[in-house]
Design brief:
The chain is of the alpha+beta class. The protein is 15% helix and 23% strand. The longest helix has 10 residues, at 51-60. The protein is globular and about 30 Å long.
């Protein structure tokens, strides 16, 4: 899978980031919260990122990385 960084909160590798893949999907890097009340299947997960990251992505444009 080819991954392209779209937007992130810093230049390090340990910050919330959104990536595009060559599969037409997005990957989201963020914290894994344990205090949610969601019923998530074992094969899925939830990550938490700052909402500003989505605003930055919209401002840049999805393919404008």
């Amino acid at each position: 899978m080819k991954v392209t960084k779209l937007v992130g909160t810093c230049d390090l590798k340990d910050c919330p980031t959104i990536y595009a893949t060559d599969r037409g999907t997005l990957l989201v890097q963020g914290e894994t919260p344990g205090d949610h009340e969601l019923d998530i299947p074992a094969h899925e997960t939830v990550v938490e990122i700052p909402e500003q990251l989505f605003f930055d992505l919209i401002r840049k444009g999805l393919r404008g990385a």
